[in-house]
Predict the 3D structure of the following.
Amino acid sequence: MNKSVLLLLLAIAATEVAAALPADCSVTDANGVRRVMQPNGELLAAQCYQCHGDQGRSLGEIDSIGGKSAGDLYGDLREFKSNGKADIMSLQARAYRDCELYAIAQYLSTLPNQGD
Amino acid sequence: MDRRTFVKKLGLGTVASAAVAGTLAKADSGSAAATAPEPFEIVVVGGGFGGASVAKYIALWGGAAVKVTLVDSNAAHVSCILSNLVLNNQKTLANLTFPLVKAAEKYQFAFKQGAVAGMGAELNGSRFIALADGSKIYFDKLVLSPGIDFDFPRGMVQNGWTDTNTPFPHAWKAGLQTNNLRDQLKMLPGGGKARVVMTIPPKPYRCPPGPYERACLIADYLKNKKGGGKLFVLDANPAIQAEPVNFGKAFSGLYKGIIEYQPNAAVNAVSAAAAFNPRLALPQDKTINVSYTGALPANPIGSGQKFHLINVIPKQKAADLLFGTDFRHLLGGKAWAGVHIDTYQSLYDNDVYVIGDAHDSVQPKAGHIANSEAKVCADALLRHLQLRPARVMPDEAPVTNSACFSPITASTASFLTAGYRYNPALDTMEKIAAASGEAEQINSDNYKMMLAWANNLFAEVF
């Protein structure tokens, strides 16, 4: 593989990684400069623990969420947000920007897995 | 705190740049013990859902850079959440009692049992909380989570009446009054003869759905254990304040003929011939003076009518502690403490934060959201101490949530949930309509989820 093809592949890979970030992570600041938002996943994820247990470790019927894959968690949160239902989790998911849900999923995935 | 002390605690001069970068919390404590700065002293007053949670998260996120002490006059917290289930014998107070020393061990902060008598400062500027036993606890930052107290109607409180024998237990702080109210319900006459009143205070009050939930459980108890009876629900507000669809349905359907709901009804006074005696049948000796604003209900209650049981949930205000000489400035002349709502820092005192039921905001006064506020406050307080980098907006706009399950019968429940987000342009927390609502159905699944939710919340806090 020559160098220019390698660079092209790297550029495509980088684009794909960027595309994985939710679109609403992109914000324009007061000076008109576009930048990527960085929500505090640790703080936002802590707002899940009232129902899902400390560090996402649930004691009873509610799902444990600590240590699950970030992709699965984000997919579930997006599904809750957009499903049109009015259960607690669907309502709660609508409190957050996609970018925040993404940060929550990323943070929760770093916690010890508690099983289901 | 003076600047010299602040610099010393940050460890500037020895490990200066790390501190400024906001990474010092743990970075300089392990590597160079000889130069480790003194930890910031954080005192939290009030060991309920707000106070115990903020102590936990300041200790967790502050690490070795903070020393957190929780102060409460009681050795244990008795949860208001689920306490209406004591009334129908689904729970006991023991199930809802959480020793604070255990929470402190579990989440690594110190607990000191003691009544707060005041707040002061030494000549060098060091601030402290004074306890009734004469001891002082010094702080760099103070978080108050003292909850509520009451404005009682005339006749509700008298010398010689205790939590155990008062004929008028509000039971709006869980404890001995909860058992008293349970016992009075048990002593009501059967055969559909029981005549009961409960009153709902003007908003804001602790736990918006709570009074309606209690009305349902009392009505359920009358229906199933006492052959029916009459429960007048007198609401100082113009309408049901939470879950209006589900509570409305329960009042007019499930409990038709038992509950009579009367809005715009304010209680002025109550009277009883004697203290509650659990060994005697409950006498029909209690009266209530009510003012109706607007249209009179079909069966207005007059001062001549007598009832077996009157459960007044009194009008509420921030805890009495905040009306004391050393704390009154935090109220700014109001009934609730004024705070910067994105941090919970007092509007009137930069070293003091107020969270939970005692602060003034659109967020409901309840345990679940007090825990949510505690996390936002802990994060903000650590940023103010430069233990975390300054908050970036809109990336880190505070978001809080409220969720609450309400039993409607001994085996079914409803729920209420809401989300709130900080709006920097208006400097307020705003309710997010799309994230807020009540249960579509009253059912047994909600009842099971209520117990699962409460167990996780209890374990998260205590």
Confidence is low (pLDDT under 50) at residues 13-32 of chain B. Chain B has two domains: 3-149+318-397, 151-316. The first strand of chain B starts at residue 40 and ends at 45. Residues 3-149+318-397 of chain B form a domain with the FAD/NAD(P)-binding domain fold (CATH 3.50.50.60).
